[in-house]
């Protein structure tokens, strides 16, 4: 997936989940943050960030904050990017059959999932989670408790029971990671829920991404580790 016109700036502060103050060419502007998660280990004062110009002069915030540098590594923090990049990846992945039909935002029972993928009579439900948190090459999800994420795991288990293939696709919005593990310290129930779902037939797909200042493309498969030491 590609962005339109992007610029760089220096992160100053984040007054709330939705906006940040960024120095762009010597002028401190209020920008929209396309991620309501904490991102506390990424958005640190003085950090170089990447913004997309929305192209709408009438919008209250002209720029969207989409990525940030951490230790020389560029991390995409746009919460909409994983779904877009995954949808582009599916047809070339070979994981879901020939000429897959990708249906976004599909409701099954009382749960809405990111994708239903159909190919040759095979029906696959996929819930996508963007991963932006890392430490020493280990990437983790979530960065804040997610009851919605836990509900999706229960729903995916039910999909398996109903005859669907079902996956959690964890899209790591950066390169250079070695392994994925649930963030038990932040939300133990989600980690245990992922373990339970996996034991009951829900697949786990972890992919890293090639990230530039104006694009993000799903790239290689990463291993995952479940369970606390």
Describe what is shown at a glance.
The chain has 229 residues and is α+β, with helices and mostly antiparallel strands. Helices cover 17% and strands 45% of the residues. It folds into two domains: 6-76, OB fold (Dihydrolipoamide Acetyltransferase, E2P) (Beta Barrel); 81-221, Trna Endonuclease, Chain: A, domain 1 (3-Layer(aba) Sandwich), CATH 3.40.1350.60.
Number of helices: 3
Give the overall shape. globular
CATH architecture of the largest domain: 3-Layer(aba) Sandwich
User: How do the strands line up in the largest sheet?
Assistant: 7-8-9-12-14-15
- Count of spatially separate domains: 2
Give the helices and strands as they follow along the chain: EEEEEEHEEEEEHEEHEE
- Stretches where pLDDT falls below 50 for ≥5 residues? none
Number of extended strands:
15
What percentage of the residues does DSSP assign to strands (E)? Answer: 35-45%
**Percent range of helical residues:** 10-25%
Rg: 18 Å
The biggest beta sheet reads:
6 strands, mixed
Q: What is the structural class?
A: alpha+beta
Q: What is the average of the pLDDT values? A: 95
- CATH C-level class of the largest domain is Alpha Beta
Q: How far is it from the N-terminal to the C-terminal residue, by CA? A: 37 Å
The CATH topology of the largest domain corresponds to Trna Endonuclease, Chain: A, domain 1
């Amino acid at each position: 997936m590609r962005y339109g016109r992007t610029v760089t700036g220096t992160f100053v502060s984040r007054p709330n989940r939705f906006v940040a103050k960024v120095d762009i060419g010597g002028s401190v502007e209020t920008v929209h943050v396309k991620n309501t998660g904490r991102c506390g280990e990424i958005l640190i004062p003085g950090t170089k960030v990447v913004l997309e110009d929305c192209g709408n002069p009438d919008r209250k915030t002209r720029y969207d904050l989409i990525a940030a540098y951490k230790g020389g590594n560029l991390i995409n923090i746009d919460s909409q990017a994983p779904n877009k990049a995954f949808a582009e990846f599916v047809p070339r992945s070979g994981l879901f059959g020939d000429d897959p039909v990708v249906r976004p935002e599909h409701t099954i029972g009382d749960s809405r999932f990111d994708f239903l993928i159909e190919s040759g009579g095979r029906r696959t439900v996929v819930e996508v989670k963007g991963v932006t948190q890392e430490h020493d090459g280990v990437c983790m999800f979530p960065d804040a408790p997610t009851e919605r994420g836990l509900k999706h795991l229960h729903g995916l288990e039910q999909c398996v029971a109903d005859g669907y293939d079902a996956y959690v696709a964890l899209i790591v919005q950066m390169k250079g990671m070695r392994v994925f593990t649930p963030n038990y310290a932040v939300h133990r129930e989600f980690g245990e829920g992922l373990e339970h779902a996996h034991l009951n037939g829900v697949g786990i797909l972890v992919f890293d991404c090639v990230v530039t200042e104006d694009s993000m493309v799903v790239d290689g498969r990463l291993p995952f580790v479940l369970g606390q030491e």
